[in-house]
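Appendix B. Extra example for self-study. Work through it before the problem class; the solution is given directly after the inputs so you can check yourself.
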Amino acid sequence: MSIILFLFFMCFSPNEATLTIATTTSVEDTGLLEVLLPPFEKHYDIKVKYIAVGTGQALRLARDGNADLIFVHDKEREEDFIKQGYGTHRHEVMQNYFLIVGPEKNVEALEHKPLCDILGSIASNEFLFISRGDESGTHSREKLLWKTCKVLPSGEWYLESGSGMISTLRIANEKQAFALTDTATFLSHRDELQLHSYTEKDSLLLNIYSIIPVNPDKYPHVCIKEAEKFISYILKGEGGTIIKNFGKERYGKPLFQMMWKP
Amino acid sequence: MNPEIFEVVVRSFFVSSAAILISSIIAIPLAVYISLKEFKGKKIFLAVINSFLAVPAVAIGLFCYLLFARNGFLGFFHLLYTAKAMIIAQALLAFPIILSLTVSGLQILAKPLRDTLFTLGLSPLQTVFSLLYELRRQVVTAIIMAFSRVIGETGMTLMVGGNIKGETRVMTTTIAMETMKGNFELAITLGIILLSTAIILNIVTQLLLGETHAPAM
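Solution. Structure tokens for the complete assembly:
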């Protein structure tokens, strides 16, 4: 309750408008928010606060009325969120692919194999696999992949980190284990990770990020005007260009592909 | 009790007890030695030891992380993200607490007691054990204080342990994770267990210390 009141005052305080975004760790870990938000704050004179957690937690924050906008990647749960009346619209913004990464020593045996063969070999050979285990978008995709491939992920080899993407990748790196990651987080930390990417682009691995404003009918205190401004900044304004070019300079290719033409 | 909670609680106690045991084995004899020995610069030495109490846990976490990481100085042991790493980090955190509190307990009584024990004709080793026996309250207090400090440590434990389910997930890291997830029930259950542990340990400490001493920290 106090948080809601707090947000209420933040939003309507006469000096400065604010926008609270609940987002996924992969968007923060890559450094995208650091370049995406300042121009928006400056141009619209809106202070943005973001909370970077797993998609499951981000949805929960929004469900409890603690965010104005969510920027997440789990289509199924996003649609539920809107169906239940918590969100207004779902705007697909950008995409990349999930990757299965793992130690270099298995490259010969597993590289270029179909996705399900890779997962199957991990399980049958009991290669260590580090799961996010945190109900994030990546975690729910991982569960879907095991299910689709009819592989049961359980046993000594299957560990749950309960942490964000980069922590999970670091654990996989230390233990030389496999993990499912989004491309952006993996590429932006590739230098520190001695992990190899095993998968090709596969429709099962498509990773779509979208933004959803929280429904003001549900929570009258949400800053819906500010949220709409942010959406048009991404979909029609400078924000799209920033995303489109993000990572080009440092990694040779953009980390996210925009899903629309400006 | 939920088996998952039980496992996490047991692991917490195991890791912290192991850390305290290792720390005590080194710190207590050292404390006795320092208390009995008169040497030049002893005051400064004690001041330095006491100042280690101020080292933030997260700094120890960073130090251990860099040391244990695969490309770190001790990387070849593959210690990072294991329970062993958590034990070592917690032992490092506990060490100055046990040392400093034991020394300050011994300091007050060491000299007169040592003389008394010496006049009884005891060997140095017997003297040491008699001293520790006479000061058992202070020693136990030091150990309990250190234990309640390390079992409640979160950031450092997460940094070196990684919160891996079934391996390095302890009470504090579970509470942090479940709160973030919004699973307050599990977080609250563990919070109550952790809180009762701390309170019970503190009461025991104060009873041991008697009425003459204020709580140590």
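Self-check: The first helix of chain B runs from residue 3 to 36. If your reasoning did not lead you there, revisit section 3.
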